[in-house]
Amino acid sequence: MQLPPRIENLIRQDHALNAAVLKALSIVEPWTLDNRTVFFHEYTDHSLKHLAEVLLTAEGLISDESWPHLTAEDGAVITLSVLLHDCALHISEDGFFSLIEGRYQSAPSRYIQNEMAWPALWDQFLTEARRFDQRKLHALFGSSDPIQDIPSNKLDLTFKHRLLIGEFLRRHHARLAHEIAISGIPGPNSPLSLADDEFRDLMDLSGYVARSHNSSIRSAVDVLEPNQRRVHRNCRAPFIMMVLRIADYLQIHSSRAPGQLLRLKSLVSPVSRGEWRKHMSVREINQAHDDPEAIFVDCEPESAATFLGMQSLLRDIQSELDKSWAVLGEVYGRLPPLSSLGITIRRIRSNIDDPHLFWKQRKPPFLPRDFRFKTASAELMDLLVMPLYGEKPEIGIRELVQNAVDACRERDDLIVKGLVTSTLKSSDDVIVTLNCSDGSAAKLVIEDFGVGMTSDVVDKYLLNIGASFRRSDIWRKNHESAGHSTVHRTGRFGIGLLAAFLLGPEIKVTTRSIFDTEDDAITFSCKQGSESIEVRPCKFHAGTRIEIPISDKVKAKLIKEAGLWDWYCLASPSVKRIFADETETHLRQKYTVPECDSNLDSTKWRRVFAEGYDDILWSYEMLEKWGRPDDIVICNGVMVCQNSRKLTPAISEELGYISATPPSLVVFDADGRFPINLQRDAVVMDHTEFQKELALDLSNYLATRLIHKFENLNPGITPENVLLTVKPGIIGMSPTGDYRNKISPIVISKTGIIPTDADLLRAAKITSIVIDPANVSNSRGAFTSQSLTEWAEHYVAVDGITHTKISRTNFLRDSIGGYEQYGTSTVFFEPLGVVGRRILVRKKDVSELVTPGNVPRSQWNRLTLEVDLGAWGLWAMGIVPPLTLDLSAVCAELTLTDSFGITLLYFGSDTNIREAADSQPSAFSEVWDQLVRAPVLQQRSRY
Predict the structure, then answer these.
(1) What local confidence, expressed as pLDDT, does residue 542 receive?
(2) HSE-up of 4 (CA within 13 Å, CB side)?
(3) Which segments constitute the HD-CE domain (predicted)?
(4) Sheet order of strands, 294-299 included
């Protein structure tokens, strides 16, 4: 690389310095010549050509008045700092692994001490990267897929791995440039040194100047010793820092990102695409401007995003010019002749400075304005409180209680870690009081003895709707370990204060951080829509108290329906609810579920394990206790919902056709993985990461109870025994659809029973089955004697039909097939491959039900009347075997039991073969196979 003539002449004044610079150049030049940035495929040009352009720009920036006062050391440091400032972008895979594995040891620097080691820096970055939100992930990688661990073998690095490593190196490239200057280029073996030991001080200074381009010039200059800031080692370091940063900024012309490359390849990272387009938008940079100290940048942005990006970049350059000139004046302004040091520009102008004029002159295909969603806090509260939550004051209590509980958990976490000492507190952690005792307006008070808040936290997070302190760096530092939260926090979205206004239009907050003294407490009041809030100092215990005057309407609702604001379900931290009028009444906590990692031996709760969750518990205790489904979902101790059906499809999918009444579910989720909606009243996804584990354990529970009930039947397998004894004892088994008071049918064979799981039914190789809708009045099938099983190989009584028209219509539709959405009579057996059907039903029911709006005539006409039995008829379709049963006897029994009819299904010979070779067995069939070792459960002899 040919050095600019003026800089080259400076360096040649000292032969030793010239030799040192040439040696460094001889090493850097081949390293950067081919621009092999293995972790920065999508970056704009940072090759040797770019370095040469920065040097040329630097030479052009230095004013004529400055050159006489520059030395050979100045020329060397300018050249070396330019060579170094972006060299980290060229690091190899071997070099990167030597950094994070601790094999690269940097020599000490005169200017920077006690830095975090590279392996720890990498671990810290990975911890943060695993928490990138979707917007950040998409900006860096073009997709929102989670971060994957980096493989130890460089050959296994994917493109996304390289982008992630590139982001890490980009953040620390200035530091690495400094370390390369004094310790050499990291690689597979020992580092490749850029200079001999005698020039170590020169390389340290050059590296520090290169490093300074990524930080504030004022802070960089302040590191230099006060009496050496102007001239340090015969070098005007502050001036060179200024020249480097401005020269690097001004390398923004379009040749650094040739447009044809964008047409030939697609950039994955939206950030990279934006940077390339900004560079491409620059048409010319010149000083042909009315202002002799200004540089003019002519731009032709292709979009509003590029326009705004260029405006921001030009503002940054102007800001850098202003700060650099200010520092230069402070350092050299009163010291002739160094006061002559300066660069040729003070200002940067552009044709996009005035958006209106740009629009008028260029007529671009976009409006050059910043259109975006903005938050105006006063209006936001008014617009969102009711639409988000509705008129539900109990939601406001939940949000405030969960924040109070979180604060107490954080307090305990800080105490365990030794960051604070134990604090004086009430016997209860959180106290919720509905106060109606003083004759004035009622008031709700939520007081906790947790960590409290500083004024900074109040300003940045509590009053900033949507900003959660629990996503801040400070919180993560105190309450995270190895990327995992050590607190089961319930608040997630930063909208607790918003929900508080559901209780009343004004709130009063008093708080003190656990890290502050008693005199550092603060208090303030704010109304919904407040523009300004006055905060005053006060005295208070560590923790927070929120007071909300409530209306008579809200008070009446909270008194009448106290269960509505009973959200908390753990014993610790403790939450006490009080209704205070003339006396104090302590309100009962309805649910108290086991703690995380607690012993479940003496309880009716069961545990499943899933990666990423601290604990997952489930139980039918509520169903057994109250005799009705009460499938609550609790996350980190706070109720999410009751009777939630969202998880049912996911569990059913894993179970097969053994559907289950949803159990009560308790999730301990420190990292916020469990998918809860913004209102926190429902699970927002139809699957979870632990649905397989839950389905397996649920299957074990159901199968074990079924086996126990069946093996304790009276001797002899009869439909009556099975229907009346086995089925009522299997809590939780239910068909798809309405689960209330229904349980999955059980197939009765001549030798035993088979649960209605498709995999088990295939394995049993059944060829036909009789479906008998049990009469709802007695929960029995039409056939309760041994006679039916004498001619039916397999028999099942499904939950019955009523005499209503819709009930009978649904059963008839199911019997024809293809109408699974209307009921569950035959849906359990469709996966077996039904090849033929027979339906025995009264002819008067056919006349009534095969009508428009009920059973379509076109569907019923698929069947033919096989046998006319007077009041009854036997209809058939598909492939059916010869008839062997005594139809007269069957009709007589159907008439006796006032039954609707029966359906017979026939299956093909290959139904035992799985439909797809790669399909997985259901969770229930896996467990059943382990417990029974056969599809049919046979009754054991008692003798």
Answers:
(1) 92
(2) 20
(3) 40-323
(4) 282-286, 294-299, 347-350
- Planar angle of CA 415, 420, 423, nearest 5 degrees: 80
pLDDT tens for each residue of 711-751: 877 666 665 566 555 554 555 554 333 333 345 678 888 77
* Cβ atoms of 548 and 503 closer than 8 Å: yes
How far, in Å, CA of 546 to CA of 544, rounded? 7
Q: How does strand 794-798 pair with strand 768-773?
A: parallel
Residue 574: partners with Cβ closer than 8 Å, 6 or more residues away: 427, 428, 429, 430
SS3 at position 133: coil
Q: How confident is the model at residue 842 (pLDDT cuts 50, 70, 90)?
A: very high
Whether the CB-CB separation of 351 and 298 falls below 8 Å is answered with yes
Q: Record the tokens describing residue 534, joined without a space.
A: 């006055």
> Maximum distance among all alpha carbons in the chain?
123
Query: Residue holding tokens 């100045």?
Result: 74
Q: What is the pLDDT of residues 307-343, one digit of tens each?
A: 888 898 899 889 999 999 999 999 998 888 999 999 9
- Give 149: exposed, middle or buried? Use CB within 10 Å, 0-12, 13-18, 19+: exposed
Q: Which residue from 483, 446, 460, 929 is spatially nearest to 699, judged by alpha carbons?
A: 929
Give 459's strand partners.
Answer: none
> Does the pLDDT at position 584 exceed 70?
yes
Cβ burial, residue 233 (10 Å; 0-12/13-18/19+): middle
With a cut of 60, say whether residue 396 has pLDDT above it: yes
Question: How confident is the model at residue 942, as a pLDDT?
Answer: 42
Give the per-residue SS3 of 32-43. Answer: HHCCCCCCCCCC
Residue-range domains of the chain with CATH: 5-250 (no CATH), 377-587 (3.30.565.10), 606-697 (3.30.230), 714-938 (no CATH)
Contact (Cβ atoms closer than 8 angstroms) between residue 55 and residue 62? no
Which residue stretches of 442-585 are H helix?
455-457, 473-479, 496-500, 552-560
Q: Which of 581, 296, 332 is nearest to 440 (CA)?
A: 581
DSSP β-bridge partners for residue 902: 840
pLDDT at 35 over 60: no
Distance of CA 867 to the CA centre of its chain: 62
Please name which of 1, 173, 147, 160 lies closest in space to residue 95, comparing C-alpha atoms.
173
Dihedrals phi, psi of 350, to nearest 5 degrees: -155, 160
d(CA 17, CA 203): 11
Distance CA 540, CA 510 (A): 7
Mean pLDDT confidence for 745-768? 84
230: pLDDT strictly greater than 50: yes
Please check the confidence at residue 474 and state whether its pLDDT lies above 60: yes
Q: What is the mean pLDDT of residues 532-558?
A: 88
Q: Strand, helix or coil at 131?
A: coil
Distance CA(595)–CA(618), nearest Å, equals 12
Q: Helix 200-212 vs helix 15-33: angle between axes, to the nearest 10 degrees?
A: 50
CB of 405 closer than 8 Å to CB of 568: yes
Give the 3-state secondary structure percentages of the chain, helix then strand then coil, rounded to 5: 45, 15, 40
Mean pLDDT computed over 863-886: 92
- Residue 7: pLDDT over 60: yes
Digit-coded pLDDT (tens) for 769-828: 888 876 544 444 555 444 554 556 787 777 667 788 988 888 888 888 864 433 345 666
Helix (H, G, I), strand (E, B) or coil at 91: coil
* Sequence-separated (6 or more) residues with CB below 8 Å from residue 942: 715
Give the closest residue to 240 by CA, choosing from 39, 84, 349, 421: 84
Amino acid of residue 451: V
Task: Choose among 365, 369, 363: nearest CA to 308.
Answer: 369
Q: What is the pTM of this model?
A: 0.59
Strand partners, 23: none
Each residue's pLDDT tens digit, 186-221: 988 889 999 999 999 999 999 999 999 989 999 999
